[in-house]
């Protein structure tokens, strides 16, 4: 069923009783050509592009809970492509371009909003670093601008300019950056993948990976054994535990990251604002009016999808330091997600030492914006057995080869990335 203004009117006239389910609830078959573990945004996008762009049939996505129950439905919805290093820049720029056409592609309203990202500058050295990153982005065909203090004040008059410990000196702006409704991305990819024959199987936890003669033959699940020719992992925060089922010891740690939403307010913040000096804080306003914000990792490894009060306190303190008016706004909800942190803060889309086992992970806290390119490049890898050109440096063995992609220059410390 195609969604359109006409279909909305037609369904309204019949009391909205005839909408078809957006995807089926199939029982697992005994065998698939490709099984993707993880029904987050990346797993579903991979299934969609495999079916559409690489004519792969007989695909299943196995999700241990409901689709979007992981980080895909927990993030702060920011998309951007302000990356500088070869290996990251072309990849994230491809992703932003795919976001720009995604709603038409999926025939689904994902509320893509290119409202612009304003990354505040608080020191001369930070301005130099931002200018360098911006120049690299311009040379790579992306968009970037530097604003001075007065231009920022005109754009965002409610920030703390005059009494801040870290005064605002200017900002780096990417106008094409913005937000996308995260649940809608999951549902849009699920619906589009399902319409191309992909079986999306929820409440189906993979508990073991069966191998014979060095190759994966299938997975043990809470719904029984399911065979496959190729197995692809897209399990984000659970990447290291699922990888271990195939004997892989991956360079990934799992850490908790929290996010928050306030009570609904009248329109106030019409950009994504990032504050990255002294503290770390990012904020935008949802279409419902809630302020959506977050900060750093809690700082310890965890598989709990909830965090601790110390991070709540420091997030609120950073927020109020930047926007003093926030002190009078009530926070409604807080939640956590499990982040698959790599040693260099960049992701992995690669084959593994097990020939028919493929890995997509290590997204740290930037994987939502990567969703379309991640799905596309992972599908390319699975179908053709070779990396897509823009993902060719996102390799698993880059750490042992001494070729990390440390965008932030933070060294091999997953909790700092
Ligand atoms: C609080 C927070 C804020 C964030 N903000 C941003 C942001 O603003 N911008 C941005 O770009 N990124 C952001 N991120 C990161 C982003 O959400 C993730 O990097 C991205 O969603 C990860 O990919 P995914 O969607 O496929 O992961 P998930 O949605 O986590 O998908 C993995 C799925 O695998 C399933 N799974 C795990 N183990 C098994 C198993 N054994 N069997 C079957 N299924 C299994 C899980 O249940 C889960 O549904 C944020 C994350 C959090 C938590």
TrEMBL record:
Species per Swiss-Prot/TrEMBL record: Ferirhizobium litorale
Full protein name: Sarcosine oxidase subunit beta family protein
Residue ranges of every copy of the FAD dependent oxidoreductase domain listed in the record: 33-380
GO biological process, one term: tetrahydrofolate metabolic process
Xref: NCBIfam families: soxB
Domain of life of the native organism: Bacteria
Compartments (UniProt record): Cytoplasm
This protein's GO CC annotations: cytoplasm
GO molecular function per UniProt: nucleotide binding; sarcosine oxidase activity
Oxidoreductase keyword on record: yes
